[in-house]
Amino acid sequence: MASKNMFQTPSGVKxxxxxxxxxxxxxxxxxxxxxxxxxxxxxQTPIFEPADLFIRGLGQATELVEKQMYVFRTKGGDLxxxxxxxxxxxxxxxxxxxxxxxxxxxxxWTFGPFYRYExxxxxxxxxxxxxxxxxxxxxxxxxxxxxxQLLFEIFEELKIKDISVEIxxxxxxxxxxxxxxxxxSYLRQNFxxxxxDCRRRFKENPLRVLDCKEEKCQRVVNLAPxxxxxxxxxxxxxxxxxxxxxxxxxxxxxxxxxLVRGLDYYTKTVFEIFAKNSKLSKNALAGGGRYxxxxxxxxxxxxxxxxxAFGVERVIELFEENKISIFKTKKKPEVFLAQLGKAxxxxxLILLKDFRKAGILVAxxxxxxxxxxxxxxxDRLGCRYVLILGQQEVLEQKIxxxxxxxxxxxxxxxxxxxxxxxxxxxxx
Length: 428
Ligand code: HAM
Known about the structure:
Layout: H1 18-37, E1 41-42, E2 48-50, H2 51-58, H3 63-67, E3 71-73, E4 79-82, H4 87-96, E5 106-115, E6 127-136, H5 141-157, E7 163-169, H6 176-189, H7 196-204, H8 215-221, H9 233-248, E8 253-255, E9 267-275, E10 286-290, H10 294-299, E11 305-311, H11 312-321, E12 335-339, H12 342-357, E13 362-364, H13 371-381, E14 385-389, H14 391-396, E15 398-403, E16 409-413, H15 417-427
Parallel strand pairs: 1-5, 7-8, 12-13, 12-14
Antiparallel strand pairs: 2-4, 3-4, 5-6, 6-11, 7-9, 9-10, 10-11, 14-15, 15-16
Helix pairs in contact: 1-5, 5-9
């Protein structure tokens, strides 16, 4: 137990300790291989950006911008924000570096921490990690399907089963205003049945009422007119195509006519991926959609785009809940290098480098001077061979090799030790 006066991590954030960080590395590795195959370039945008990028990009009235963003003023007077998500930063980078002059689409992906001031609970942190994919410069429906396929492939590689997509189309600037009018009039008639938050949402953006999890609002929402019934021909065709691609890929999906997502940049397809039969089944593993108007807002350039991100902590919590083991058993060192005296320590440091270069795992305990302790250590680690280097051996450019299995000991030339060990390990 830490004492009262010791510093602790702030609420909602945690240290990633070595055993846990192994998960992050594995998730990164699997994502990287899939991203490489599908032609995604890896990008890292800064952890903080001008606050205005998110305010304009995600929408002033969104919950994320209004309540969850970490905003601070620098000593120089700039208003900055810790990035709450990746899409706006990547869109900014695309415009800033003139990526629209490259062959389109431009596919980018990133892995890193994001920040939201949310109420901490299982699956919800104030610093959390995302793997995020974006395809910029292509409006075709097949891109929407490819993003979903990609996430499914990663989840499959990570042995996550029983997942499904909830999907909807929220139209574009042609058809959404018309739907908003119909919805507004319906909600006005049911205003008294809405929760306090939704009464406010009704004024700011009535679409957001559709997202409310309150039971009383759900009752109103369940009878509300649906956006899919009011899509323009263009959005309708696009959505139909996305669904056809998903069927072709045999990706299980559920139409959710009330899925709107919390960010203003979305147009047409929106989706969330959930793990079924899990304690976390209410929290989405991943979310994304098309955002054909974001780059216009940020840079006056018409660039259709689609993307998605998944939450690394939520995936790890699923591993733990379902006892999913994603690691091969870690290789154990079969060789222990024991040393006696300063000259032997120096030679050992050099030898360790040679062994590492040769790809041979060697354990050591350089801080210890007693041979007995070092041999005990080798035994505890289950090493088969112990190399012993003392002052005399260094002078004679030799090293002792003890086979703990047979008990035999012999002398080797120092310059040959790496090749000799390699040979023995190969022959078992
Ligand atoms: P999002 O739905 O806000 O979308 O976040 C994506 C995923 O990040 C969520 O499904 C969840 O797994 C994880 N996540 C979000 N907030 C937290 C939190 N507080 N703690 C733990 N995990 C969390 C976006 O961020 C969009 N930028 C996705 C996108 C990319 N859309 C288009 N391109």
